[in-house]
Specification:
single chain; 191 residues; mainly alpha; 10 helices; 54% helix; globular; disordered N terminus
C-alpha cells in the first residue's frame, strides 16, 4: 500500500473526515454511559486502544494481562499470527475482567458476529449524534492514531499500538496532526 493511498483513507471521496475529532469523541464517550456493560466495554476497547473491530471481537480472558494492565491483541500479519500488547486504563481493565469472570480462557468476551459489533458501535454513534463517514468503527481507530500523534506519542509506539507493519501507514496520523492542531494556527492569528 503506498503512502498517497494511505493519506486518502483519513478522508472520503468528497474530502470529509473519516475519524472522530475531540468533540465527537467526548460525545461518543458520554453516550457510552447509557450503553449496556458489554457494548460499553467493547466500544471503549476500540476507542482507547485503536484496535481493529476483528481484534476486539477475538479478545478472550487469556488476552487480559491484568498485572501489566494491557490487552493482548491477536492479528493476522502477512499471513502469520502476531500479537501485540496495548495498555488500557484501570477502569476499562476492571470492566473487561468483570465481563470475563464466568468465561473460559478461550471464550470470546463478545460472542458477536462482526456485523453485530459494527451495529453496536453505529448505534452509540447515532446516540452521540455523530453522522457522516467518521461514524464507523474505523473512525475510532483513526481518531486514536491522530490523538496519539497530537499528544506527541513517538511514532514507533503508535505503530506498535496500532499494529502497523509499515511506518508509512503510521505516518498518515503524523501528517494529519498539522491539519487538526488549531493551537499552532492560533499562534499566528492576531489577538
Amino acid at each position: 500500500m503506498n503512502k498517497a493511498r494511505d493519506i486518502t483513507e483519513l478522508y472520503d471521496r468528497t474530502g470529509r473526515r473519516r475519524y472522530l475529532c475531540d468533540t465527537e469523541l467526548a460525545r461518543f464517550h458520554a453516550a457510552l454511559r447509557k450503553a449496556d456493560p458489554a457494548t460499553r466495554s467493547f466500544c471503549q476497547l476500540i476507542a482507547l486502544t485503536g484496535c481493529r473491530i476483528s481484534e476486539a471481537l477475538a479478545t478472550t480472558p487469556k488476552h487480559l494481562d491484568t498485572d501489566a494492565k494491557r490487552v493482548i491483541f491477536r492479528t493476522l500479519k502477512r499471513r502469520k499470527i502476531a500479537y501485540r500488547a496495548v495498555p488500557v486504563p484501570d477502569k476499562l481493565m476492571a470492566e473487561l475482567v468483570a465481563l470475563a469472570k464466568d468465561l473460559g480462557d478461550d471464550q470470546r468476551l463478545w460472542p458477536w458476529a462482526r456485523q453485530t459489533g459494527w451495529r453496536k458501535i453505529r448505534a452509540v454513534m447515532e446516540s452521540a449524534e455523530i453522522i457522516g463517514p467518521m461514524a464507523m468503527p474505523k473512525g475510532l481507530r483513526h481518531a486514536y492514531g491522530i490523538r496519539a500523534a497530537s499528544k506527541n506519542v513517538p511514532p514507533s509506539i503508535i505503530q506498535r499500538f496500532l499494529g502497523h507493519a509499515d511506518q508509512a501507514t503510521t505516518a498518515i496520523y503524523l501528517e494529519a496532526v498539522g491539519e487538526e492542531e488549531r493551537e499552532f494556527a492560533e499562534r499566528v492569528w492576531p489577538n
